[in-house]
């Protein structure tokens, strides 16, 4: 996740000039100069997104299209996810894995047509992802990066009403569906999705039209610009992973508690079980997770899990904080943590030994050398408000 420290080497999104104009504090992120917050500040931006509508620039992320009769089957061979059966017009969460079952990246993909998929990958991983996908399946389908496209996200309870006023009919989309639309006369591809736990939309648009679209949206009184800081606090309250912090090549989907992302058809006994990188390990861990067995003594053992945590004292527990049993034995580490602005309490996620992963289990974090009592809990920390119809 490290980005260059020399600002002269940083890339700029098509909205860079607008961010500066709006007074954003710019920071290096995924190789880009990105807005971390605006003058209103992180807390105000977080709350505005929860109450009205926030506009995020996520153009640092990678966009690509896979096309050809074999595109779906080819892409499915890289992930423990059902691609083939995804209907046209729908979107799904996916996980690129390496041969050890580690997560190369998490992503979103949309079935545009029977022979076409639109894919969004993380900004810090996009160069490697595109190279990996091309090397693995480039002979089976066309892999077309879309560097001339920007990506915006409009998130919050007022997002649908605001966007439908500019694009009548867009309100018909439900969570994880989308299509091509015009927004104020600007061509765009929209999905009803996002990474805040709120209702909202992600909007892919030609880079040349990005600033005009952003200004059109920001002209609405209920829309405010939101930076990376609030995006992070929003996604954490929603229990969503940040690649490079909560998941990476050292974590499998089962260890990351992402079992829900692997459909039955790809699991043991399913019609298309296995056939993805690291399948032996991942399927063995799934079997352990489903039975509650202790596992084996080899690489397939499920020894740790990602869990939600709440501090029982009002002490923020940050990324990297060690986790211990009350007897002082090391059992894991926090991967994301902060004082949740909406949850109004310190929340975190991290990895713990499986014996300590059940909700209600009490453990402790070590913060500045002092123990802070914590409790394992289910996620999200704040109820999600996705629109499912």
Summarize it.
This protein is of the alpha+beta class. The chain has a domain at 7-57 and 148-237: Gyrase A, domain 2.
How is this structure best described in words?
The protein is α+β, with helices and mostly antiparallel strands and 389 residues long. It has a domain at 7-57 and 148-237: 2-Layer Sandwich (Gyrase A, domain 2). It contains 8 helices and 20 strands. The strands form 4 sheets. It has a 6-stranded mixed β-sheet. Strands 15-18-17-16-19-20 form a 6-stranded antiparallel β-barrel. A 5-stranded antiparallel β-sheet has the order 6-7-8-5-9. A hairpin with a 5-residue loop joins strand 6 and strand 7. The longest helix is centred in the last third of the chain and has 13 residues, at 279-291.
Helix-strand pattern: EHEEHEEHEEEHEEHEEEHEHHEEEEEE
Strand order in space, largest sheet: 11-12-13-10-4-14
CATH homologous superfamily caption of the domain at 7-57 and 148-237 = Probable tRNA modification gtpase trme, domain 1
Radius of gyration: 21 Å
Query: pLDDT under 50 segments (min length 5)?
Result: 1-5
What is the SS-derived class? alpha+beta
Into which percent range does the helicity of residues fall? 10-25%
Main sheet: strands, sense, barrel = 6 strands, mixed
Main CATH class of the domain at 7-57 and 148-237: Alpha Beta
Q: Which percent range describes the beta-strand content? A: 25-35%
Q: Helical element count?
A: 8
CATH fold group of the domain at 7-57 and 148-237: Gyrase A, domain 2
Number of strands: 20
Provide mean pLDDT, rounded.
95
Query: How far apart, in Å, are the first and last alpha carbons?
Result: 36 Å
CATH architecture field of the domain at 7-57 and 148-237: 2-Layer Sandwich
Global outline: globular
